[in-house]
Amino acid sequence: MYDVIIIGAGTAGLTAAIYSARAGKRVIVIEGSTIGGQIATSPRVENYPGIMQISGMEFSDRLFEQATALGVELEIDTVVGITDNGGIKTVTTEYGSFEGKAVIIATGVKHRKLGANGEDKYSGRGVSYCAICDGAFYKDKTVAVIGGGSSALISADLLSDGCEKVYLIHRRSEFRGEEKILSGLRAKANVEIVCDTVVDEIFGDEKVTGVTLRNVSTEKIKNVSLDGVFVSVGQTPENAAFSSLVELDEYGYIVAGEDTKTSSEGIFAAGDCRTKAIRQLTTAAADGAVAALAVCDYLR
After folding, report:
1. Does residue 118 sit within a domain?
2. Of 195, 212, 231, which one is at a domain's C-terminal end?
3. How far is CA 267 from CA 31, 32, 246, 256, 297, in A?
4. pLDDT digits (tens, 9 = 90+) for 79-93
């Protein structure tokens, strides 16, 4: 029997594990994919207080080492549901189940698809959702990054260091991402920014060879030859497995306030998976701390 079961080993989940373990609780973290969550794929983290610069992977490794040094257990498995048995929670996974007195859901989000023709066909054959994972395969080649947020700008910046040409394609005239990164991209000779434009189709042979672009203002169509497409158009929460137990909003995020409490007693939500205005590394860590302390209050 665990005091707290944490679903997700990202920044929020591991921070919650650290705070819970330091409070003397027996803790297990269940993770179905990547330790550290999405930040683990970031080449540089420069906006975390007290750390000038660090790779996302190193940041994640440090969190994980800190948690396990405190006795936190880790289970690599995918959670498929939670059952509340009169106060005791049973977390069911693909290969087993775990019982705990409280649960913190910190599942984060996943990449949203573009929805263009050919996207699924060429996924893994020129279509990627992770520049740091696949960028090295496109050294001295031409690629496109689709999106207007900070993640798209960071991807374009990373790719521009090795690619011959990078198109940054955005459906609007203004970007949502950080102005500092955007200004740096505008100054790079091998980056071409294309606004008010959407991708209608991704085409190729065995691999991607180009995209069909459409200007949303003029409806003008043109084909652009390239070797790879990096989709960075937002994220969706991974909360479907919990929909029968906790309230979700219309977008699939767990309805929980700054106290991280959900609609189900003893179940808390931390990090990007919950309803919140700002989703940053610092707010994920804050959520993890708040959720762990809320669990301690609940258990008392």
Report:
1. no
2. 231
3. 17, 19, 8, 10, 12
4. 999 999 878 999 999
Are 196 and 173 within 8 A, CB to CB? Answer: yes
Residue 248: CATH number of its domain = 3.50.50.60
* Distance set, CA 40 to CA 61, 99, 111, 137 (Å): 8, 29, 14, 19
Which residue is associated with the tokens 């258990």?
Answer: 299
Q: How far apart are CA 246 and CA 188, in angstroms?
A: 47
Q: 100: how many CB neighbours lie within 10 A of its CB?
A: 23
Which among 215, 231, 247 is the end of a domain? 231
If residue 269 lies in a helix (H) or strand (E), which one and from where to where?
A: strand 267-269
At 297 the three-state DSSP class reads helix
| 3: CB partners within 8 A, 6+ apart | 20, 25, 26, 27, 100, 101, 102, 295, 299
Q: Other C-beta atoms within 10 Å of 82: how many?
A: 21
Q: What whole-number distance in Å separates Cα of residue 160 and Cα of residue 147?
A: 15
Catalytic residue numbers? 130, 133-134
216-245 in b/e burial notation, b at 16+ Cβ within 10 A? eeeeeeeebebbbbbbbbbbebbbebbeeb
Q: What is the mean pLDDT of residues 142-164?
A: 95
Do 247 and 222 share a structural domain?
no
Instruction: Write the DSSP assignment of 134-146 as a string of letters.
Output: HGGGGTTSEEEEE
Could you read off the pLDDT of 8-45 as tens digits, one per residue? 999 999 999 999 999 999 999 999 988 998 888 776 78
**CA separation, residue 252 to residues 3, 20, 165, 175, 273 (Å):** 27, 27, 37, 25, 8
- Boundaries of domain holding 28: 2-111+235-299
Q: What is the mean pLDDT of residues 245-250?
A: 96
